[in-house]
Amino acid sequence: MLYIVTELATTLSSGTRKRELVWHVGEEPHKISESEKVLLVQADCDELSHIQQSFSGIPLSDKRVNVWNGEFADFIARNLPR
Description:
This protein is α+β, with helices and mostly antiparallel strands. The chain is built from two helices and four strands; from the N terminus they run βββαβα. It has a four-stranded antiparallel sheet with strand order 2-1-3-4, covered by helices on one side. The chain is elongated and about 45 Å long. The relative contact order is 0.25. The model has no long low-confidence stretch (mean pLDDT 93).
């Protein structure tokens, strides 16, 4: 499973709104607007293997579950292969 958390600034006094998205290999990637900030990406199982095979330069640990934030999370979430 690949888990994505985004944050979108809202108008007035409501502050921000978070979205939690789940993606699996073979599914169409979620649309993430340019105004959304990707806070976190977490992957395990087939989705972690998919990231390892699809992207170079992404830091990986030896753990069963990998978590990214910042620029790496943003890059992964916005560039998932179709």
